[in-house]
Every structure is written in structure tokens, then in C-alpha cells.
Amino acid sequence: MGPALVHDCDVLVIGGGIVGLSTAYAITRAAPGTRVTVLEKEQAPARHQTGRNSGVIHSGIYYRPGSLKARYAVRGAAELVKFCAEYDIAHAVTGKLIVATDRTELPRLHALVQRGRENGIPVRELGAAQIAEYEPAVRGLAAIRVGTTGVCDFVGVARQLADASGAEIRYGARVVRIDRRPALGVAVRTADGTVLRARALVNCAGLHCDEVARLAGDDPGMRVVPFRGEYYTLNRPDLVRGLVYPVPDPAFPFLGVHLTRGIDGSVHVGPNAVPALAREGYHWGRLSPRDLRGTLAYPGSWHMARRHWRHGAGELRRSLSKGAFVQAVRRLLPDVSGADLTPAAAGVRAQAVLPDGTLVDDFLIREAPRTVHVLNAPSPAATASLPIGREVARRVLGVLG
Predict the structure, then answer these.
(1) What is the pLDDT of residues 280-321, one digit of tens each?
(2) What is the C-alpha to C-alpha distance for residues 257 and 234, in angstroms, rounded to an integer?
(3) Cα distances (Å, whole numbers) of residue 109 to 96, 101, 264
(4) 117-123-126 Cα angle (round to 5)
């Protein structure tokens, strides 16, 4: 870079998932005329977390009141439904049940009722007999009904955001080097040797966001530890009308094995949560020595394992044993057998872990010179993508002045 630097665009966004594309969309709406380029290493958008989840529009009931997750999920769910309706993207507001199947879960269920009300979410409490009004095949001691939960085609949303943003989207553009000069701007080189120069950079690289932060010369203060979520398809979809969830463990940021009727009428069961052997490790056979070495060398991984080993052992057992997985499902849906479940595509969650082993619970957005990093945006980031995009856009436009 030199004093006569000519910028190819104003903002470079790394990552063509739903958060990166929502950011591009928000920038061009907040500041028309801003030149935005999105770099995506795959040949199409939404190939990872966005396109490999259960398709749920989350209500925001699970998240700590006042947190970014709570505020953005509640706001984002309503906005996402409007967005889907406006652009004729497949979606449905089905509502969901959160079901307690054991007496020890009842206090946590009641706490969720209170949390939902604090987050401004309408919640109806149900007794055992009332569960059958919504889900005749589901059994439980008590439940809560959350009417604002739904499902949608998140890949379709991502494509529409790309089209409507007016940004230049470059696919097959894997970033290999970043050269940042605070007085001048940012230069990015992709694997094919192309160099692009911008006034500011946004890192929405998902599973690789910490690596991109380091390429930019920043210490992210965390590491992505990938967790694979494995799903089955229910061969008897008539057993489930909508969405059915267990009562989650508040000490672990995963929601447990749940039942999701998708927009196509099929029912997905899952996911569990097991450590992946690669950042894009969608099955046990996908191993990246580099990714695995990084995970094992990170102190936070070992602190996390010591803290959550008991929970993790159960998740691993459900991964290796279909019978154990079926047993977990039968707590909610007693009529299910192993023959009713067919393996489906898995996803990988980019979970930010701190050096002390703490699993980062909230969305994490950090700023650096001429740069905004999105460092933790797992579920419900797809639901919250429109508010997240506006927040990132606000920050990067501040960088541009």
C-alpha cells in the first residue's frame, strides 16, 4: 500500500453466510452508494451454519434478558417473518412446545416462563393433558407454548439478501492474507492471487472467524471450537405437528434433541452436540489434522472438557449409538423406534471458547482499526441476522466516518 492507494470498494465483507450478507444489505440501505464486496470461499452462499441448521425462527425465550441474543432474536424473528412474506420466501409461524418430561425439569420450565415474559414473549403454560391439544403423540408432565416460533428457508433468505444488497458477491474467493494499514485501509489477497483494497473490513467468517482475525493482526481473545450437530429424519412425520423441544440445561449452550417440522413437511430430529474433528467436520470421517491440533493445543478446550465432561459424554454416546439417540427422542415421543429414524445431513456450530474454558454465551462483536469482527454468532444468529447486520453496519460505517 502507498499514499496513492486506490480502493476497489469501501467495505470488504469476508463470509457469505446469512450474517455477512445481512451486513452487506444493511450497509447499502443505511448508506446508499457505499461500495460493498463480499468474499465467500464456497461457490454459493450459506453453505455452512446458515444452510445446515434446523431452519427454526427462534422466539428468543432462552436468552438472558438484556443480552444481544435476547434483544436481537425477539426483534429479528418478527423482522424475518416480514422479510420472508415480502419476498415470497417459504416460511411458517408454527409455534412450539417446550416440554418437561421429568419432575427435576419443572423448576427450569417455570424459570423459562419468567424469562420469556421478561423478554416480551407471549407464553402459555400447559398441563400434561393440554399438551395433547397441540401435539397428540408427545408426552410430558408440563409444557409451555411459545406462539412466535416458526420455520423458514434460511438459504432462500441469504440469497435474497445477496440480491437485494446490491453488493458485489465473489464466490470461490478464499482469503489467505490481510494487510491492514490504519492510515490507508485494508488489502486482502485471495487464494487465486487476486488483491482487493478497501477502506474497511468486516469479518463474518463463521467457523473461521478467529483465523481471519489473526490474519488481520488482531488477537480475538477466543478460539472457535467446532461442535457437530447430528440429525435424523423422522419417517413418520404425522407424529409431529410443529416444533417440540426439551427443557434445556442452562449450563450448556445447546438446546438438546428436539423435533422440527420443516417448511417442506418433513420432520428433523436432533441435533446432539459433539466435538468435530475439523471446522467443517460434518461426519466422523472428516478429519483436519491442522484444525484438530489447534483445538487440542488450546488451553480453553481442556478447561471446557473438565467442566462439561459429564454432559459431553452423554452427547458422544448419542452420536455413536443410534439406540441412545432413540432413547433421548422417546422421552418426548414414546412411539418412536429406531426404524423410524433415517440419518440426515449434519451441521457444525462455531462455538467461541475463552482461554479459561468458558463457552461464550452471547453474540460477540469486536472492533479493531478499520475492522469489525463478528466472533461468536451461532444459533440464533440466523433468526437475528437482520438486527446483527444493522449493528455491524453501524460500526463499520462509523469506521468510514
Answers:
(1) 999 999 999 999 999 999 999 999 999 999 889 999 999 999
(2) 13
(3) 14, 10, 30
(4) 135
How many CB atoms sit inside 10 A of residue 287's CB? 12
DSSP 8-state code for residue 67: S
For the whole model, what pTM was predicted? 0.96
Q: What is the largest CA-CA distance in the chain?
A: 73
The position carrying cell 416480551 is 120
CB 14 within 8 A of CB 205: yes
Examine residue 45 and say whether the peptide bond preceding it is cis (omega within 30 degrees of 0): no
- Given a contact cutoff of 8 angstroms between Cβ atoms, the answer to whether 193 and 321 are in contact is no
Residues 53, 328: Cα–Cα separation, whole Å: 20
Q: What is the pLDDT of residues 215-245, one digit of tens each?
A: 999 999 999 999 999 999 999 999 999 999 9
Cβ-proximal residues to 193 (8 Å cutoff; 6+ apart), any chain: none
Tell me the CA distances in angstroms from 38 to 33, 47, 217, one per residue in order.
15, 15, 20
Grid cell in block for residue 143: 409444557
